[in-house]
């Protein structure tokens, strides 16, 4: 079922590009050549290195289409850009130009494409990114890809490697809200303790993640150099900081949960804390640097919490109230897991 009005198959590529052109930024000072040519020309700042990242949202894998739902499609555009901007934040980079490669089936409503671009433009404005162009094509399903460029002083870049035993581990923001939203379909009845406002906040975390670009700059300024974004889940992503002879222990009671998650899921909140799509920053460093970074983020109005530390143990473990340890839950998102035997 499609929404009211024309679909992309009625309009065609040329007219659709003309309709979407106002959403692109032609006036950014760093763009020497904006949309309209075969490529854009971007001039990064002096002495800055370029960071490049890309992400895709695939129909029926990452989302299910809701024709005619303006709010959903606007949020879909926001999320498409935000998840790539989150990768820039995880590298300590500031946002530069962003490019889009979008494929739509011919029955996709034009109004929904425009809503998608409104969400993209909103996210770009709020995070000082630039929508610089891209490509449109037809396809059997919608495949939405964002490519974001950023810039960073090379020796201040954040990366996944370099952690050592004895360091603290901390995370920005709160976790579990997006995973809780997936567990509770729209309109579903939940425990009385869960207020509608909590469920609305979970849905916002799922549909409009907030890339932590400001917090990333604070981390870099405070000497943090090891970081990644929590996209697939706390426990899975924590494991990506490890190398041979290095382990992580997390105290579940210190994990900052989105409001209402523990009340709604008293037997599953630890699993949901690692459920993914949080797009927070997980970072590690010497104790004094992590503590200083957390204080600065909090002083600036954000949230950052020490959740554990690095040691010489095996893998990612959770520490119980009795001091015992157990392997972290296998929650989170793993691509192609359904195809594994």
Question: How do you describe this structure in short?
Answer:
The protein is of the alpha+beta class and 341 residues long. The protein is built from eleven helices and 13 strands. The chain has two domains: 148 residues, PurM-like, N-terminal domain (60s Ribosomal Protein L30, Chain: A, 2-Layer Sandwich), CATH 3.30.1330; 182 residues, Phosphoribosyl-aminoimidazole Synthetase, Chain A, domain 2 (Alpha-Beta Complex).
Explain what you see.
There is one protein chain. Helix 5 (177-183) packs across helix 6 (196-207). This protein has two domains: 8-155, 60s Ribosomal Protein L30, Chain: A (2-Layer Sandwich), CATH 3.30.1330.10; 158-339, Phosphoribosyl-aminoimidazole Synthetase, Chain A, domain 2 (Alpha-Beta Complex). The strands form three sheets. Strands 8-10-7-11-9-12-13 form a seven-stranded mixed β-sheet. With 341 residues, it is α+β, with helices and mostly antiparallel strands. The two termini are 35 Å apart. A hairpin with a 7-residue loop joins strand 1 and strand 2 (41-42). The protein is 31% helix and 23% strand. The model has no long low-confidence stretch (mean pLDDT 92). It is globular and about 65 Å long.
Radius of gyration: 21 Å
Number of helices: 11
**Strand line-up in the sheet with most strands:** 8-10-7-11-9-12-13
The helix-and-strand class reads alpha+beta
Count up the domains: 2
Helix and strand element order: HHEEEHEHEEEHHHEHEHHEHEEE
């Amino acid at each position: 079922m499609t929404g009211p009005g024309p679909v992309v198959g009625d309009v065609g590529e040329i007219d659709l590009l003309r309709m979407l052109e106002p959403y692109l930024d032609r006036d950014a000072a760093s763009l020497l050549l904006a949309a309209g040519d075969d490529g854009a020309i971007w001039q990064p700042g002096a002495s800055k290195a370029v960071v490049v990242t890309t992400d895709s949202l695939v129909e029926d894998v990452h989302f299910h289409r809701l024709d005619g739902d303006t709010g959903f499609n606007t949020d879909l555009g926001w999320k498409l850009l935000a998840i790539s901007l989150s990768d820039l934040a995880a590298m300590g980079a500031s946002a530069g130009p962003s490019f889009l490669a979008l494929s739509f089936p011919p029955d996709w409503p034009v109004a929904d494409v425009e809503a998608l671009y409104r969400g993209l433009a909103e996210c770009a404005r709020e995070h000082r990114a630039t929508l610089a162009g891209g490509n449109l094509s037809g396809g059997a399903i919608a495949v939405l890809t964002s490519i974001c460029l950023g810039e960073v002083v090379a020796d201040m870049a954040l990366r996944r490697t370099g952690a050592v035993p004895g360091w603290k581990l901390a995370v920005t923001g709160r976790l579990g809200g997006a995973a809780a939203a997936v567990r509770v379909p729209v309109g579903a009845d939940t425990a009385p303790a869960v207020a509608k406002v909590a469920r609305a906040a979970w849905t916002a975390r799922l549909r409009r993640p907030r890339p932590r670009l400001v917090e990333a700059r604070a981390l870099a300024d405070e000497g943090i150099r090891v970081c990644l974004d929590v996209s697939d889940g706390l426990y899975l992503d924590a494991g990506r900081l490890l190398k041979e002879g290095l382990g992580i222990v997390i105290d579940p009671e210190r994990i900052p949960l989105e409001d209402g998650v523990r009340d709604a899921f008293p037997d599953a909140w630890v699993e949901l804390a690692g459920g993914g799509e949080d797009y927070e920053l997980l970072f590690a460093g010497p104790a004094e640097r992590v503590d200083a970074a957390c204080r600065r983020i909090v002083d600036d109005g954000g949230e950052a919490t020490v959740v554990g530390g690095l040691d010489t143990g095996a893998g990612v473990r959770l520490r119980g109230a009795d001091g015992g340890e157990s392997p972290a839950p296998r929650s989170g998102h793993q691509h192609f897991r359904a195809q594994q035997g």
